[in-house]
Amino acid sequence: MNWSDLQVLLTFQREGTLQKAATQLDLDISTVSRRIRMLEKDLGSKVVENVSGRLVLTSYGEQVVEAAEAMEVESDALQRGAKGKESVLSGVLRVALLDMFVLFHADLLNSFTVQYPQITLELVSGTTRFHSLTRREADVAIRVSTQPDENLVGMRALHTEYAVYAHVAIAEGQWSAIANQPSTPWDVLPWIGWDPAVNARMIDAWMERHVPIEQVRFRVDSPAALFMMAEAGGGACILPVIYADLSDNLVRLSDVLKGFGTDVWLLTHRDLKRNGRVQAFLNHCYQGLEPLRRRSLVSESVISAKIHP
């Protein structure tokens, strides 16, 4: 039996309707209904019933709520006691993130452990699979997404658009002779693409339309590898504007690509949102990303600022 499902039932009992419970829990009504059905399945008996068009607790449901309230009181007491004793945050915090974030924000991650020296950060990166917060494969995720899962909570830390970039040597070589042609001849440039195992459908589709396969010199399976190969002159590629515009070695060759914009989220599971280590880490990262957040607004409004020539 899941304690969070019991909390959903408690909220329903206190609010009186599924809709009010959903609003209080910041969930949609179908999720609240599903969680109650899951609780009934675990308990093997109905806890709510429809009476004259209104959903109410069954007699067994009232017993469950009474027991859950007692559990809640005990849990709150334990949490208050733990909070009083743990004035210094400590322990392990497992963070799932892209290696691109480490490449650009290692100092931000390091400053967190300086501020909280008794917390150990376990950094797990991956591009071909997500580390699931629901299955507790990580406590926190720094994730690129347009719409996070409904069971996760957090904050939108950054927004970025995407554009085509290449090393300055490529821009001043092959590109400078052809950049002003009526149609952009992307097929004359060397390119860096994504490994097929990576979910990069929009970029793959764009490259299929514009880049002959024989022009792809490298394929990579991580954002950091893509960025570093571009900086080394390995070829043109599509990169996030907020990071690529920081490089002195890269030149933007296009306007931002329509429909590619996405967000960087700082996320955790709902059950962990009040955890002290989690709260401290999310707040630290959000505040530390403020300069880049302000800069991204400029990058998005001046979309052609670095286009070469």
TrEMBL record:
This is HTH-type transcriptional regulator GltR. Belongs to the LysR transcriptional regulatory family. PANTHER family: TRANSCRIPTIONAL REGULATOR, TRANSCRIPTIONAL REGULATORY PROTEIN. Residues 1-58 form the HTH lysR-type domain. One of its GO terms (molecular function) is DNA binding. CDD domains: PBP2_LTTR_substrate (cd05466). Keywords: DNA-binding, Transcription, Transcription regulation.
